[in-house]
């Protein structure tokens, strides 16, 4: 038993040191916005641009991007949304490393798909990417903001 205590102590010290270094590394990045502010000003705003790019009324696309600038606006919103999903995983914002991480990664995947779709000016893919983003947000809100 005594022979196992020393190597175990070394392993524990190494792990604690690594965790401490990681926390110190991340603490050097200040958070200029609260989680709520990030969600309202960045996530919701950018997601809405993607959603609005693929609206059908009575089977007819309405409000869809038609100019290069409009498509670029959707592409930039998708890039912003993907970046915001990364910010949701920063220490101090992430609620846990299970579902929170998965939902953030799902939002990122949808945002990246929307970015590609906007770059390719593909309305059907924008709709699919928007659905992926919506599902990620809905799943997250269902777990972390019940009743919202």
Describe this entry's structure for a reader.
Helices cover 72% and strands 4% of the residues. It has helices at residues 2-27, 35-52, 68-87, 99-119, 123-144; strands at residues 55-57, 60-62. Strands 1-2 form a two-stranded antiparallel sheet.
Described by the principal axes of the CA atoms, the overall outline is: globular
In the sheet with the most strands, the strands line up as 1-2
Number of E strands = 2
Low-pLDDT segments, ≥5 res: 4-10, 12-24
The secondary-structure class comes to: mainly alpha
Distance between the termini: 54 Å
- Can you summarize the main beta sheet? 2 strands, antiparallel
Q: What descriptive keywords fit this protein?
A:
148 residues, mainly alpha, two-stranded antiparallel ribbon, 5 helices
Question: How would you concisely characterize the structure shown here?
Answer:
The protein is mostly helical.
């Amino acid at each position: 038993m005594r022979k196992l205590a020393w190597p175990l102590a070394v392993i524990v010290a190494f792990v604690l040191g690594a965790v401490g270094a990681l926390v110190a590394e991340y603490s050097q990045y200040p958070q200029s916005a609260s989680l709520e502010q990030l969600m309202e000003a960045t996530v919701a705003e950018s997601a809405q641009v993607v959603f609005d790019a693929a609206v059908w009324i009575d089977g007819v696309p309405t409000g869809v991007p038609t100019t290069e600038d409009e498509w670029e606006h959707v592409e930039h919103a998708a890039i912003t949304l993907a970046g915001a999903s990364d910010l949701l995983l920063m220490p101090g914002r992430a609620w846990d490393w299970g579902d929170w991480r998965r939902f953030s990664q799902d939002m990122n995947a949808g945002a990246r798909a929307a970015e590609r779709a906007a770059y390719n000016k593909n309305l059907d893919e924008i709709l699919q990417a928007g659905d992926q983003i919506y599902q990620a947000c809905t799943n997250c809100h269902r777990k972390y903001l019940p009743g919202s």
